[in-house]
Amino acid sequence: MHNEFYNYYLFSGKNLWTQAFISQYREGCCNTYKLVTGDSPVDMFFDLENIDLANGGVKSTLMIDAGAFGYFNVTDYTNESPQPFSQGSDLSVWRVPSSRLSYMNGDRLEPVYFDFEIQEVCTVDSTRNKKYVKTVVLGRHQGGIALAPPTCNEDDTGILLFEVEHTDSGESEGEGEGEV
Question: What is the reported pTM?
């Protein structure tokens, strides 16, 4: 195994949650607050449902090199205010930057964009002999995450999995599992 982690973070399920959360109260009430907020030497993020679930219900922590994943975001529209899709069309389209989500695109921080479409649709209620105009809005995210091994060796994914196994005595033992 040959993983070189230069810029890594921890992504944990319930494995480290209790320790990280309680640690702020153990040392003089909040002295280790930085561990929970990510100001510690290692950034730590928690997903209390999906990480453990994806690993068969076993309490898990992933150590991930920042270069192990690539995120991409594409949009169908370049305008950031509603414009007609085509001349005479009642469909308007635009993209909206997220106010909270962003990603590194090379050396630039870019917002995540969402495509939006809005259209007024005329519907007829034949039982009442009435026409209604409804506004239909569609919001869509197009993007994804790609796993990018940092070396030419397929076994070096830049991701290490650590699991908590329970012994017969009920005690927990942490164990590193190498690659994911």
Answer: 0.52
- Specify if 1 maps to a domain: no
- Any domain includes 2: no
Asked whether residue 167 falls in the same domain as residue 80, the answer is: no
Q: What is the pLDDT of residues 71-94, one digit of tens each?
A: 788 999 999 999 999 888 889 999
Place of tokens 């012994």: 167
Phi, psi angles (nearest 5°) of residue 143:
180, -175
Structural domain span for residue 19: 8-69+147-179
- Which CA distances in Å does 26 have to 19, 21, 30, 38, 70? 10, 10, 8, 18, 37
Confidence check: pLDDT of 4 > 70: no
DSSP 3-state helix, strand, coil percentages of the chain (rounded to 5)? 15, 50, 40
> Same domain for 132 and 164?
no
Tell me how far the alpha carbon of residue 113 is from its chain's centroid. Answer: 14
Task: Decide: 19 and 46 in contact? Cβ < 8 Å.
Answer: no
